[in-house]
Write a structure and sequence with these properties.
Number of domains: 2
Radius of gyration: 22 Å
InterPro entries: Homeodomain-like_sf, HTH_RpiR, RpiR-like, SIS_dom, SIS_dom_sf, WH-like_DNA-bd_sf
CATH architecture of the largest domain: 3-Layer(aba) Sandwich
GO molecular function: carbohydrate derivative binding; DNA binding; DNA-binding transcription factor activity
Structural class: alpha/beta
Protein name: Transcriptional regulator
Distance between the termini: 56 Å
Organism: Streptomyces cacaoi
Strand content: 5-15%
Number of strands: 5
């Protein structure tokens, strides 16, 4: 092999360093990224069937990615899955990857650039179009996130409201979540932000949306766990646990893109809402907004 990998390399890093892959090898590599839990317990024959290739292609891909064989690859996947469930281990791994003699800024930027670069290969056009259509047709959009994901839920709902889309965020857990769920109607949509793990509340929200007849969109790295939920559409997120990039970076980019896509479909209406927002801000502050330096349209 031309590229040397170490045991600490992430799967995404190994794929990037492997150089050009044949079509069958690309299919295997993509499956490993999307379904690490399934791959970790599958034989070469089963992986070959799942990817439309062969057991020989699976083993060749594993070796091309720098693993000694399929067993080595599966052990690496198991270790990765265990780390994703342990926030302390994730933080420790991120710090360990930083060179003590250098600042953290550049590694974080490099890792973030690489992480976002993995998004297009994970989110296929069919799922993306379905998610956009669901949100565009919904009478009201609810965004749900807990822990760090709560901040993204709040920001996404705010962005939609400013563009003229009725939207609110849920960030509650436990009994308080039940009060929020009572507000869900069949003509609504729910966007669930669960970057690393699907906690019990995530499954309950998705189940309730399914029973209610409301559409749901789930953003998560835990794509294998997502298969066991009632999510209507899943937008996979790239693995963030073994690099220096924050796990909220990719979902933030996807949510921002969803807002822009919706605004594109309702351009005039969205601009009008922002103009009304400026008017209200002027009334609140008592002074005109300073737009003198803006160029003429």
């Amino acid at each position: 092999m031309d590229n040397v990998n170490t045991s600490s390399d992430t799967l995404a890093e190994r794929i990037r360093r492997a150089g050009p892959l044949a079509s069958g090898e690309r299919a295997v590599a993509a499956y490993l990224q999307r379904h690490p839990e399934e791959a970790a317990v599958s034989s070469a024959a089963k992986l070959g069937k799942a990817t439309g290739t062969s057991d020989a292609t699976v083993i060749r891909t594993a070796r091309k990615l720098g693993f000694a064989g399929l067993g080595d690859l599966k052990r690496s996947l198991v270790q990765h899955l265990a780390r994703r469930r342990d926030p302390a281990q994730v933080l420790d791994d991120r710090v360990q990857r930083l060179h003590p003699a250098h600042a953290a800024l550049q590694p974080v930027i490099d890792a973030g650039r690489a992480l976002l670069g993995d998004v297009p290969a994970l989110v296929d056009s069919t799922a993306w179009t379905r998610a956009v259509d669901v949100l565009n047709e919904a009478e009201h959009v609810w965004a749900y996130g807990i822990g760090p994901g709560a901040a993204l839920a709040d920001q996404f709902a705010l962005s939609l409201r400013r563009a003229g889309k009725a939207s609110d965020a849920w960030t509650a857990t436990g009994f308080r979540l039940a009060d929020d769920l009572l507000r869900l109607q069949p003509a609504h949509a729910v966007v669930v932000i669960a970057p690393l793990r699907l906690f019990r509340e995530i499954g309950i929200v998705l189940d309730h949306a399914h029973r209610t007849g409301a559409h749901s969109v789930l953003l998560t790295e835990a794509t294998d766990e997502a298969k066991d939920t009632r999510a209507g559409t899943v937008l996979p997120l790239p693995d963030s646990t073994e690099g220096a990039a924050n796990e909220l970076l990719a979902p933030l980019a996807l949510l921002h893109a969803l807002v822009l896509q919706l605004v594109t479909a309702q351009h005039a209406s969205a601009v009008d809402h922002y103009q009304r927002l400026n008017t209200l801000r002027t009334e609140i502050t008592g002074t005109e907004l300073d737009l003198s330096r803006l160029p003429e349209p």
